[in-house]
Write a structure and sequence with these properties.
- The structure is a single chain.
- With about 375 residues, this protein is an all-alpha fold.
- It contains 11 helices and no strands.
- It has 2 domains: about 130 residues, no CATH class; about 160 residues.
- Helix content is about 80%, strand content about 0%.
- The radius of gyration is 27 Å and the shape is globular.
- The chain starts with a helix and ends in a 12-residue tail after the last helix.
């Protein structure tokens, strides 16, 4: 009897292990299929995610209109008009700044050539052989205004024009899809709980749970947007006070990239500091770098955690991996959405008993407990 019981117990353990192994393989295969579907259907999922993102940010404004007894369709229209005005103003600022930046590129190219030539002469004076640096074009010793005319390749120009037109057309189609999806999301937002209750038999506590998740996501996106806006304004004003070129552009870049914790501030600072070093020298670039550091540390490391709390934080490793993964899936737009996606996923996992442990793994490292001295 003892042998038979041992055999039965061993068989049960083997069956459990096989079941777990098969379950892991099934989950892995499902994830591969889901990721492949996300890549294939990027033209649908990207506009949908942007529409949800803007709709969540717009819900407080919509609720404000409805609370003042504005009819719901008119409230949705007023909300969309407000959103379009804000986004349109930002796009006009970006277009103006980028146009000015592109017009100034020849000037910076000439200054960079001069600085490279000075560096090569300095290295040659120290006895280094610089003949291997054949890729460097030394500046023309004759004075010029920096605007050397070169013959244009008609084929290359047409290629650039057609590529630009295709990109603008794609962005226009995507913007239209985002707008239409956002309209329907805002119209259906109020009646969604009742639909879920009738379709799936959800109880009041289930609806309250969904409402809590929605409020936390809305709270995170709202605070993150305000912090990003403050970061962009402070960076732009500081760069303007230093006399740095394109201060408005650097502020807009800081605002957008601040949605990416830790890495976003670095990505926003590098081009501004590099261009300032070419144009105004090392000392002003150093001052600009110090300003970036103070602004991002003050807002990102002190004010934002105070407003959001540590439970809304993400591990730096998770941020980096999400940038790589979503960038591979959806390109640059996926990188921009990567952190909000992971943050929303973390909030949803934290509100479930079975996967709360996974949400803790996605969060930052816990602070070590300091034992009281005896």
């Amino acid at each position: 009897m003892m042998v038979s019981s041992d055999v039965k117990e061993g068989d049960v353990k083997d069956a459990v292990l096989k079941f777990r192994g098969a379950r892991i393989l099934l989950v892995a295969a499902s994830l591969v299929i889901v990721v492949a579907g996300l890549r294939a259907a990027a033209a649908i999922f990207l506009p949908l995610l942007f529409a949800i993102f803007f709709a969540v940010l717009s819900l407080p404004l919509l609720s404000w209109f409805i609370a003042r007894r504005v009819p719901k369709p008119i409230a949705v229209v007023l909300t969309l008009v407000t959103d379009l005005a804000v986004v349109g103003a930002l796009l006009l600022l970006v277009a103006s700044s980028v146009t000015t930046f592109l017009e100034s590129l020849p000037k910076y190219r000439a200054q960079l050539d001069v600085q490279i030539g000075d560096a090569l002469e300095w290295l040659q004076g120290l006895g280094f052989d610089t003949t291997e640096l054949s890729w460097v074009e030394l500046p023309d010793p004759e004075p010029s205004d920096g605007r050397t005319l070169r013959p244009l390749d008609a084929g290359a120009v047409m290629g650039v024009v057609s590529s630009t037109v295709r990109s603008l057309f794609g962005l226009g189609v995507m913007a239209l899809m985002v707008l239409l999806m956002m309209v329907f999301i805002l119209l259906e937002a109020a009646g969604l709980p009742l639909k879920l209750q009738r379709a799936f038999g959800w109880r009041e506590e289930d609806l309250a749970h969904l409402g809590k998740i929605t409020q936390e996501v809305q709270h995170y996106l709202g605070i993150k947007t305000l912090i990003s806006l403050a970061t962009g304004i402070l960076v732009g004003l500081y760069a303007w006070a230093l006399g740095v070129d394109f201060a408005l552009l650097w502020g807009l870049i800081a605002f957008v990239l601040n949605y990416i914790p830790s890495l976003g501030s670095i990505l926003a600072a590098v081009p501004a500091i590099g261009l300032t070093m070419i144009d105004a020298g090392f000392s002003r670039a150093l001052l600009l770098a110090v300003g970036y550091l103070v602004i991002n540390v003050g807002l990102g490391n002190f004010l934002e955690p105070h407003l959001l709390g540590r439970r809304f934080g993400l591990s730096t490793l998770v941020v980096f991996l999400s940038l790589v993964f979503w960038g591979w899936v959806w390109g640059p737009l996926g990188m921009l959405l990567s952190v909000p996606i992971m943050m929303i996923l973390k909030i949803m996992l934290e509100n479930t008993k079975d996967f709360r442990w996974l949400a803790r793994l996605l969060g930052p490292s816990p602070r070590p407990e300091i034992s009281p001295e005896r």
